[in-house]
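assembly run, all chains below
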Amino acid sequence: MIDLIRIHTGDIIFNILIILVKTAVVFGVAMLHVAYATYFERKIIGHMQVRLGPMRVGYHGLLQPIADGVKAFFKEDIIPLNADKPVFIIAPLIAMFATISSLAVIPFFDGFVIADINVGILFLLAMSSLGAYGIVMAGWASNSKFSFLGGLRSSAQVVSYEIAMGLSLVGIMLMAGSLNLTEIVKAQQQYWHGMFLVPQFLAFFIFTVGAFAETNRTPFDLPEAESELVAGYFVEYSGMRFAFFFLAEYVGMIVMSSISVICFWGGWTLPPIIVNTFPFLGEIPGIIIFLLKVYCYLFLFYWVRATLPRYRYDQLMSLGWKVLIPLALLNIVATSLIKFFF
Amino acid sequence: MNTVELFFAYFAVSMTLLSVLIISVKNPVHSILLMLVLFFHIAALYLFLNAEFLAAVQVILYAGAILVLFLFVIMMLNLKEELMSHRFINEWPIGLALGLSIIVFIFFALDKFNPNYKGTYTIEAIKAETNTKAIGKILYTEYLLPFEIASLILLIAIVGAIVMAKKEK
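ok done. output:
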């Protein structure tokens, strides 16, 4: 009996160890990606504007993200005198943990996911909506009008676009018949094109617009509109706390890209038609395919930022409520009808 | 006490403490933050009962949407004035009486509570079917009418809000 218990607790400890190792790997790789996502953003936007981007630190500025990280770490940390101190300190942590914990349910390749839960897609939506708290709290606690306006803008924006984004993913849930992200990827293999993008192109459009709004990226970066609000909700933040917001934004972008790759682009799989014609392509590890797809989607974020101007606030709201939500509802009705009759 | 009871005891105690804190802290924004923590505890309790769908919806709807709207309204208030106002309204004895009577009521109803009752949806059945599917099925077959009535009530509230917000020209 005692032996049995010992084996059992041994199993539990072993499982916990595996989860810890997996978490450490995902966290480390994600942090590295965040660092170099900033580098590539500056490089890509630089070249799009016929500049060179960072060039000084290392070969073609390759060590720039590390230099930035060291700088942020050693910078003086200032808390405004009239700020609400506990909330001011908690806010960046909420923003960061909400986005980082989303990484836990994302399957990066077949069988590799920290927590394979049945409601994975809902968990992602829940975490992305929690990120708004960090921003709102930061805006309020700073006790500055610029921050406050940024925080208010962000909360209204996130609440509105979350609905459209959630509804657009309902189409995917209907097609896959599951909320589990691994099963969503597997369900796409039944088509010759191997991705939900083709039947769910409308949902993909809505999701992409929603993803830009949720991550506060151009053209929906009103919460941090530099020209009107200085920097929006994080005006009063400095040093490491500022870096946390930065981190949250970039992890958020990576998470949104991953959701898009999993739900619309077939995750870690290649379209069956390509694999059947060129069987050697089936040998490529899933993680490489997944990451390449994520990079393409991240590139879209940078491309849009370099190309499009910022929306006006009323335009943003009417786009969300009067165009995207009705379109998403239409998509749900159409998908269910097609699924019911065919 | 086994782990299950320990787990439940933690959630019961901390949820009660949080609820008391929510109504007793002076700053409404802090109340909302505490409420966020409370909602997470509720979600965890749902997870504990194998109701993963409910847990996710609890976080998305209550923490993600409703509480943000609360926050939005509270931030619009002038906090300095709010902090000066009285903490109790004049009718507080009525509220106290109502609350006490509910406690007495629950106390006498306690021994009628049967923890061993098992319906068609046992934990095994739900695990086989997944929680989301089980809720969906039961909501759209057995409880279709109450479900539709609830959605109609919400629709009326939405229409009412729009009518009130619209200015007469």
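The two ends of chain A are 56 Å apart (CA to CA).

Chain A has two domains: 1-74, 76-341.

not gonna interpret more than that til we talk
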